[in-house]
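cron nightly-structures :: item 1 of 1
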Amino acid sequence: MNFQIASWPPAGPEIAASVAAAMARGDWGSYVSLAHAELTEKVAEFFQVGFVRLCSSGTCAVEMALRAANVNSGDEVITSAMDYPGNVRCIEAVGGKPSLVDVAAGGVVIDIDQVMAAASPRTRAVIASHLFGQPAPVAKLRKLCDERGWILIEDACQVPGMKIDQDGEPRSAGSYGHLGTLSFGGSKPLTGGNGGAVLTDGVRFHSRLKMLYDRPSDTHPLSALQAAAILPQLEHLARLNSLRNATVSALCQVAATRFPTWKLIHHQEPTTQSCHYKLAILISAADTRSRVVDAAKAFGIPLGEGFRSLHRMSNNRCRKSTLLEHSIALGERLCVLDHRALMIDPSRHVELVDTLAAVHDSTCQARADPT
């Protein structure tokens, strides 16, 4: 059994036409192009924000957001110990000190109670990431940050198109923070091979980004051809997210019977429209994970290990206010199913379930039988 996944990056005719149009105009080699202007406008409209700064990567966007937030030497930035490791490196790059907190029990996103407990006189900002289709509690975090005079940086790099309810109105993930970040990396649901963006409604943040990165040309640019390739993908994002979400729902409905030793971690809020870049799967034991990943590869399933936990990070480099037990467990046992497997037509859900069940059963037997 070899499961056939969707090809990525996408190769639709709209993308080829958009890139060809940029080539035909001749402004693809300019510092500023029509594609840049159109993408900036459409991203602002799509994500419901006043200002968009395109840049070279999602990691770059996080660092730019930290600098726009005026994080300096001695400032602390609260973030999760289970997150993209580049976010912590960005905090260090601007001279700040990470303050690591745990994820909420049973989930993969930052615990707001621990954010409050980690507060110190040096706290300047909070980075909250939406991960594996699960939304961080950004509405509550924004309220907390406003009350404390902190800056909320909302990392929406994994979840373009996610909608989170606020007072009965769905708002785009990335628009809750004082600053939001997007990634257009090669594997992301919106891709230009590389690229990213900083989102904000704050005039002072927008002005500070211009002051920092216009010298006078853009120091961290997205190319015109990348912008042209990303533009038409916005129109298809909702449809593809719907496919991914439908596959996740189908897997969750049968998880207890078909993959009984795995826990599928997914969004459960009925008011959230998710975007599953990857689906988080917590397996039963750390010593089984490598076998699960190897077996999945043999079956053609794009399943890999999740982020490592940052709990071993030196106390000289960070502050830890708790034991980080949930992050440690995720770092040891988390697997993630790539969205190339989630984008399948609903008619193939049974095939995916059967293939994952074969991976599950073969690795469970291997663990039970040491010979």
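cron nightly-structures :: done
The mean pLDDT is 94.
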